């Protein structure tokens, strides 16, 4: 088991893209690969932390010493996070959680016969980061992500305050070297104490370590 500056700390990470089922064969999801979240979990492990990873579906690999809890939907992730949060002193929410789910799950496959179009009512999912901030803000180090296609820093700043987080890692999807499935990321880290740090294009591993550096310093 690795020893490092996070030895003795317990880190909870979420990663992957939640899947929201419509019927037994279909679901709503998004393009998140899980790479950023796995990079954080693996980096924390190598620095000595006790790591729990709440994983929505993805194809990434984590070190064997990491405790993985597999989940499918946002509601599953909410339950698993709340069950595991108490033990953690740092929580990093890198998962791409679906904001909405089909309002009603259909037990049988939805048939197309005779329909030109259908309406799919959606219901709001619980906001996990918000629930964590409400419950543990100021008591544990909490970091969230913010991916936007416009007004990135403005939205990130709002999120930091509203969700009572210590850090928001903001990335603009339209930036070269940022986004889904890439091995690099271009992020700006905003902190509760008012700092805004724009980092250059870096590997997701380097972004993970940069974030962990800030969390450990703030703890
Ligand atoms: O509000 P928005 O989805 O842009 O915020 C992104 C951050 O909030 C991410 O850290 C994401 O993991 C988290 N989130 C969450 N639960 C949701 C939606 C987003 O924890 N239902």
From TrEMBL:
GO terms for molecular function: FMN binding; metal ion binding; phosphopantothenate--cysteine ligase activity; phosphopantothenoylcysteine decarboxylase activity. Keywords: Decarboxylase, Flavoprotein, FMN, Ligase, Lyase, Magnesium, Metal-binding, Multifunctional enzyme. It catalyses: N-[(R)-4-phosphopantothenoyl]-L-cysteine + H(+) = (R)-4'-phosphopantetheine + CO2; (R)-4'-phosphopantothenate + L-cysteine + CTP = N-[(R)-4-phosphopantothenoyl]-L-cysteine + CMP + diphosphate + H(+). Residues 6-216 form the DNA/pantothenate metabolism flavoprotein C-terminal domain. Binds 1 FMN per subunit. GO terms for cellular component: phosphopantothenoylcysteine decarboxylase complex. Pathway: Cofactor biosynthesis; coenzyme A biosynthesis; CoA from (R)-pantothenate: step 3/5; Cofactor biosynthesis; coenzyme A biosynthesis; CoA from (R)-pantothenate: step 2/5. Its cofactor is Mg(2+); FMN. Residues 11-219 are annotated as: Phosphopantothenate--cysteine ligase. Its EC number is 4.1.1.36, 6.3.2.5. CTP binds at residues 99, 109, 126-129, 145, 159, 163. One of its GO terms (biological process) is coenzyme A biosynthetic process. In the N-terminal section; belongs to the HFCD (homo-oligomeric flavin containing Cys decarboxylase) superfamily. In the C-terminal section; belongs to the PPC synthetase family. Catalyzes two steps in the biosynthesis of coenzyme A. In the first step cysteine is conjugated to 4'-phosphopantothenate to form 4-phosphopantothenoylcysteine, in the latter compound is decarboxylated to form 4'-phosphopantotheine. Catalyzes two sequential steps in the biosynthesis of coenzyme A. In the first step cysteine is conjugated to 4'-phosphopantothenate to form 4-phosphopantothenoylcysteine. In the second step the latter compound is decarboxylated to form 4'-phosphopantotheine. This is Coenzyme A biosynthesis bifunctional protein CoaBC. It comes from Ructibacterium gallinarum. The lineage of its organism: Bacteria, Bacillati, Bacillota, Clostridia, Eubacteriales. The chain holds residues 183 to 401 of 401 of the full protein.
